[in-house]
Design a protein that fits this description.
This protein has 314 residues and is an all-alpha fold. The chain is 39% helix and 0% strand. The chain is elongated, with a radius of gyration of 29 Å.
Length: 314
């Protein structure tokens, strides 16, 4: 008879005995942190609402088992067979599912937040409403046969972005971007393109690749890699105001009416509309700064049009 320790793990017979002692039901049975025999065969059991937090279930066979509402938070399910299992509304937060088989499993509204799903078979699994925020994927799991159209990605940031998996993150985001592009969900594809660029930026080193790192930062701040067109508007507004203050504080009259003239000068310089009669009261270097601002303005407006059009015409 097992006692659920690493040295004396539970067997199928032990679990059946515990269920019987719990009123012939698994609901509410708390086996948190317990160890189960490697490869334990649990087929045919109804384990709805069982509590298996931190449990160790390597290579366990849950094929066609009902685990609806079960709490498997941080459980070790490495190599487990969950084919056609019912995991509706189950809590698998931070669970380890490396090499697990989830083919045809019902994962409706299941919580997989921060779970590790390396090399998991998700073919034909029902993932409607499943919470996948922060999960760790290898990328090979994402194929055209997986239905991830209605999953909840939260803020679209996967656990792959930690330093030791940052290069894997790029490939995973690229696959997700392609999957959503193929099904016509361009907004979601854009979210994963943004994360792909973010992981690429994080992978660059200031020491080894300063130019690439700097260009990534600039594109992130200016337009969010083309996915945040209104960041360009914010940059334009900030540039106009900052340069207006420069014109104001270098002028001869520090009065608020003069500031509005400076703001006007900055705006018409930025938009390259021309200075009108006001240009005659400026000195040479201010004219040069105004010309430089015009260059920034033309670039910013072109960047906004490109990013905005790209977003609207997908």
């Amino acid at each position: 008879m097992g006692d659920g320790t690493e040295q004396n793990p539970y067997t199928r017979e032990d679990l059946l005995r515990l269920i019987e002692e719990n009123g012939d039901k698994a609901e509410g049975l708390d086996l948190s942190g317990k160890w189960f025999k490697e490869g334990i065969d649990l087929r045919g059991l109804h384990l709805d609402n069982i509590i298996l937090r931190y449990a160790n279930l390597p290579k366990a066979n849950f094929q066609e088992v009902s685990l609806s509402g079960a709490n498997l938070q941080q459980a070790d399910l490495t190599g487990a067979n969950l084919q056609e299992a019912d995991l509706m509304k189950a809590n698998l937060q931070e669970a380890g599912l490396i090499n697990a088989n989830l083919r045809k499993a019902s994962l409706v509204a299941a919580n997989f937040q921060k779970a590790t799903l390396f090399f998991v078979d998700l073919q034909q699994a029902n993932l409607i409403g499943a919470k996948l925020q922060g999960i760790v994927l290898a990328g090979e799991e994402i194929s055209s046969e997986i239905e991830i159209e209605h999953v909840d990605w939260g803020n679209y940031v996967l656990g792959n972005e930690r330093s030791d998996l940052i290069l894997v993150a790029q490939a995973v985001y690229r696959r997700l971007k392609q999957w959503y592009t193929n099904v016509g969900m361009y907004d979601v594809a854009g979210k994963f393109f943004y994360r792909e660029m973010e992981s690429k930026r994080k992978a660059h080193s200031w020491k080894k690749e300063p130019a690439s790192k700097l260009s990534s930062w600039v594109m992130r701040l200016l337009c969010g890699y083309g996915e945040r067109p209104f960041r360009v508007v914010g940059f334009a507004t900030l540039a106009i105001v900052i340069l207006a203050f420069i014109y104001f504080f270098t002028g001869s009259a520090w009065e608020w009416p003069a500031f509005w003239n400076s703001l006007y000068f900055s705006a018409v310089s930025f938009t390259a509309l021309g200075y009108g009669s006001w240009v005659e009261t400026t000195n040479g270097w201010i004219r040069g700064l105004g010309a430089f601002e015009a260059f920034i303005g033309v670039f910013s407006m072109a960047l906004f049009l490109v990013t905005f059009t790209r977003k609207m015409t997908r």
